[in-house]
Amino acid sequence: MANNSNLGAAKAAKNDEFYTQYADIQKEVNAYLEYNPDTFRDKTVLLPCDDPEWSNFTRFFAQNFERLGLKRLISTSYAVESKKYKDYEPTLFETESPLFDIDKTCIKGKIFELTRDTNQNGRIDIDDLEWHYLEGDGDFRSPEVCALRDEADIIVTNPPFSLFREFVTWCIKSRKTMLIIGNINAITYKEVFPSIKENLLWLGATGFMTDMVFGVPKGADVDPKDKAKAAKLGYVGDFTRLGNSCWFTNIDHGRRHEPMMLMSMKENIRYGKHKDLKEEGYLHYFNYDAIDVPYVDSIPADYNGKMGVPITFLDKYCPDQFEIIDDGTEVPKTKEHISYKHKGIITYEINGKVVWSTPYTVSERKLGNSLRIERNGQPTNCPFGRIIIRKKQQQ
Description:
Structural class: alpha+beta
Number of helices: 12
Shape: elongated
């Protein structure tokens, strides 16, 4: 009988495998083509971390090779024994090939390439894919796949979520164009945020609030609500819906150049839908020179200073309208302060001067040098969980 650690490892592996749907890939890529029809023309596209026989990424780019104007398509996969999830059954495409070797299949990765009309039917498509075994196991960090990365123009894939930090670093290091799927919370990763701040990486054309459905291995642990949501969207069976997934890219698209329509501070307080903002107005951080804007739709049009906004702001971020100053996690906490409580009011003083007070329950929980302040157990009125932005001045 398998021990608990083995069962746990198998479960974790299954929960790290998410298979992107063809419709989601098509929708995302079409948005870039609408903005620039030549986005992929004469380009070499690399699909690492893939399963070419099963992958919708390989299927989409192979079927649309001529429409996209691609020069070369490369798709690589891990060897069976190198995968966390090893439930593998070779396809007829592989077993009927004279190249098939059951021993190599277990320990060697595979590479699929598309460059020409091999069956001479007058078009280049998925039926013209050529493949062979790699020398190594196909890990994207291997010298072999790194060399393929360096040959490519665009990297496209849905990497295992557990390896996202390493994979995005691998892409950024190469200074290549990329289009990859990750969790919205990856925005705050130290491997990701600096590139977002410098406008070298941004969210893709599909808003992260849009439901994305993924196929999962049989036996994967799926929330029944997410499984039901996927079924309502037409995906019945081994599927899940992930509402916090999004595309990360450095390919330009039209949505990121659409400025937000904003109201003034007074208008947000008077006409806005958020009760706490109506009652308290815009609060100023006691340990950082910025106001807190707890809702993206409440960003004031008439404030020119620094503002702390939720990370969901990036879904609406227009670099022509705002600049990103900081991620809020390294905002220094003022050490020379005292606090006291009177009738439920927490007051902070520095050198005898009241600098900030609030009726909120305060819990000082450090993360690095940042301070987390909570109201009823939820973060509020603090740079933690915020992106610091400032409105761009009109030239």
